Hints:
The chain is mostly helical. Helix content is 68%, strand content 0%.
Amino acid sequence: MSEIQNNHFRVILLAATILTLWATPSLSADIRTLRKQAEAGNANAQFNLGSMYETGSGVRQDYAEAAKWYRKAAERGDARAQYNLIPVAIGCINTEYQLDCNSEYRIGGAL
Length: 111
């Protein structure tokens, strides 16, 4: 690799590092805001928080926490959360938020 290419690579790497460090605090603030909205009963925020915990996007992946927030959103009528609870119900994840395999959150009455 030539010296020019090597320097170019270092500049790109430095810029990416700076952008990551700059964006991290705002992500934490966004998650705190989202959590406050979810705790206040906002079904959309509850669904989004459940999705984040399911995928590990911005938070540590935690299926029990995802199930907790999906269930809260589903109880408020969020169809996306009801749909996302299906895999949880089929797997009967063993958490305090475990769904009965005969859960009421089923599409068409069958899993």
